[in-house]
TrEMBL record:
InterPro entries linked: CheY-like_superfamily, Cyclic_di-GMP/3'3'-cGAMP_PDE, HD/PDEase_dom, HD_GYP_dom, Sig_transdc_resp-reg_receiver
CDD domains, sorted: HDc (cd00077), REC_RpfG-like (cd17551)
Organism whose genome encodes this protein: Aromatoleum bremense
Keywords assigned: Phosphoprotein
Classification of source organism: Bacteria, Pseudomonadati, Pseudomonadota, Betaproteobacteria, Rhodocyclales
Domain HD-GYP: 146-343
PROSITE patterns: HD_GYP, RESPONSE_REGULATORY
A Pfam match: HD_5
Modified residues annotated as 4-aspartylphosphate in this record: D52
Every Response regulatory domain range: 2-119
Top-level taxon: Bacteria
Name of the protein in question: Response regulator
């Protein structure tokens, strides 16, 4: 324990120093010059300050005021040494934040008793602070655990859907990476971009509810079949909606909106323009580009050029122009993602 003693009278300093040395585990730090003492206290971590009142500037009151201005020292025990009859000084010292007083001239027994009390107070403060730190660390770990588990749940849900979807995992991964690319280029917040990575893989989770003979049909759908196929957006939304997880809320919105079109000709609700949430407009570009450049039971692979031409032709019709532009601005990244997940 660092016990700082500030007193401009050398004999007092010597006397109190000798007393402090009799306390277990205490190291006296002596300052005859209150300015130097103050500087030391602001730069270091004293455990107890004993400060005389009557000194050349800063006097005891100013000293305490300066120390208390340091947030670290808000609860630090400070004893002020003053004569018992200096009532006004004592009241002022209480206002500045003195913890207790020592009578002048210093009496050894009283000094030791009060110093011991103050140090006991200090020890319990330190123990409490330590406990608070441990608690904060435990909370942090628990929250990280919850996040990990939430992520795991999302991945398992997406995996369940993959079992029924004729599309392979690498299609979903590519589509997801494209959404992040577009969101980054649009300057959307970093945590939104990150949530997209968890949410976008579930955009077609509603296909779990599409009958096999429609989902897996080797040829084109009849209008009646397509009508049923379209329900995958609403089914996905029903599966994911009302979650307390922000990532799953985002996934619900993507499931619901990824087949809306910018000109209002999409489904399920024929929303137009900015009435379609941004995540839906982003997912539409990523999803269609991925579908076109992939093999499907009902269509063959399109070349990158043809797929790019399709996005350009339907800019402002099927797609939000800003999302198409962002996608082409990142063309290098698009090609890189195409190569990286080229396993299907
Ligand atoms: P998907 O195969 O992943 O296709 C996603 C979206 O990409 C389609 O949404 C469509 O906007 C676009 N797309 C895919 N292939 C083509 C294409 O050859 N030409 C053009 N112009 N656009 C294409 P859409 O049409 O709402 O379809 C949603 C999902 O319904 C498709 O996901 C697929 O799973 C299924 N689907 C749609 N039409 C057929 C079909 O004729 N036969 C079968 N078996 N499934 C279909
Ligand atoms: C959502 O946007 O995910 C909520 C459903 C709605 O658009 O009505
Ligand atoms: Fe879809
Ligand atoms: Fe899709």
């Amino acid at each position: 324990m660092n016990v700082v003693i500030v007193d401009d009278t050398p004999t007092n300093l010597q006397l109190m120093s000798g007393l402090v040395q009799r306390l277990d585990g205490c190291r006296p730090l002596l300052f005859a010059d209150s300015g130097s003492g103050l500087w030391w206290c602001l730069e270091h971590d004293p455990d107890l300050i004993i400060v005389d009142y009557m000194m050349p500037s800063p006097n005891g009151l100013e000293f305490i005021r300066q120390v208390r201005r340091e947030p670290r020292h808000a609860d630090l025990p400070i004893l002020m040494v003053s004569a018992d009859h200096e009532k006004q000084v004592r009241y002022a010292a209480l206002d500045e934040g003195a913890t207790d007083f020592l009578n002048k001239p210093v009496d050894g027994v009283e000094f030791l008793a009060r110093a011991r009390n103050m140090l006991a107070l200090r020890r319990s403060q330190l123990a409490l602070a330590g406990r608070a730190l441990t608690l904060a660390e435990e909370v942090r770990r628990a929250v990280a655990d919850i996040h990990d588990r939430e992520r795991e749940t999302i991945i398992r849900l997406a995996r369940a859907a993959e079992y029924r979807d004729p599309e392979t995992g690498s299609h979903i991964l590519r589509m997801t990476q494209y959404t992040e690319l577009i969101a980054a280029r649009l300057g959307l917040p970093k945590d939104f971009q990150e949530m997209l990575l968890h949410a976008a893989p579930m955009h077609d989770i509603g296909k779990l509810g599409t009958p096999d003979h429609i989902l897996l049909k080797p040829g084109r759908h009849t209008p009646e079949e397509f009508e049923i196929m379209r329900r995958h957006t609403l089914i996905g939304y029903e599966i994911l909606k009302e979650s307390s997880s922000r990532a799953i809320q985002l996934a619900a919105s993507i499931a619901l909106h990824h087949h809306e079109k910018f000109d209002g000709s999409g489904y399920p609700r024929a929303l137009a323009g900015e009435a379609i949430p941004i995540e839906g407009r982003i997912a539409a570009v990523a999803d269609v580009f991925d579908a076109l450049t992939s093999e499907r039971p009902y269509k063959s692979v399109w070349s990158l050029e043809d797929a790019a031409a399709y996005l350009r032709d339907h800019r402002g019709r099927h797609f939000d122009p800003a999302c198409v532009d962002a996608f082409f601005d990142c063309w290098g990244g698009v090609l890189e993602i195409g190569h990286r997940f080229d396993g299907a």
